[in-house]
Amino acid sequence: MTPTTPSAAAFSAPIKSFEKVVGAAGEATSRTRCQVFAFEAYIAPQPPAPTKYTSISQLVDDLEKDDQGRAALEAGRRWVADTFYDEDGDTVRALRLRLGWSQTRLAEALQTSQSHVARIERGTENLTIETCRKISRVLGIDLNRLNDALERQEAIAAAKQK
Q1: Full-model pTM
Q2: How far apart are the C-alpha atoms of 102 and 99, rounded to whole Å?
Q3: What is the pLDDT of residue 85?
Q4: pLDDT digits (tens, 9 = 90+) for 27-44
């Protein structure tokens, strides 16, 4: 998600001006001048990276290239699945993490994008039967178990929205 920040510099010309008379009959009146401004959102600039900076994604990419680093990441993902997603039951996220896979690796296996996998895992994507077949084949589960996982995800997503 891209952070946006309202800025007076983005657009500062008034879009509407009006004058309002305030006061009841027989009382002193005053005139109030108002101007309405529109402030459009813009993308906040990113601060410069520190020297010798390594991003998290670059660090993970470097670890994935090494057999020992890849094994450590896979073990870490399994630990995350067991520690944080165990009580959710089977969801696509939990099934992926139990395999030790990243969203990117699952996306490559499904021949899709990482963002598509993220939407599937959030339970907000309406999947075709072809995609469901690919997911079940790649994760090594049958379509009934995948359907249960997708329904569970949708219920979790609906509960979070309340």
Answers
A1: 0.65
A2: 9
A3: 86
A4: 666 666 666 666 666 677
